[in-house]
Amino acid sequence: MTMELQQAFENALKTVDSLTQRPSNEHLLKLYALYKQSTHGDNDTERPGGFDFKAAAKYNAWASLSGKPKQEAMKEYIDLIDSLKATEN
To answer: Which end of the chain is more exposed for a tag (fewer CB within 10 A), N or C?
Structure first.
């Protein structure tokens, strides 16, 4: 992983908190999944059971990225943050 990519990813992580408009639930799930894939790799956690729909949605979003390289997930996270910032102006 390049230092430039790591730095850009860390900057994007800081930027997400400074967005003036709250991202849609769909974007929030995508950001969560890309973050988890970028930092932990494939989802190897146990699927939440019962009626915890929020946890199940997060689990499914992350699991859908299985096999995606961490660097690719980082680039997609950065691109998504950039597109969300662009829509604020």
So the answer is: C
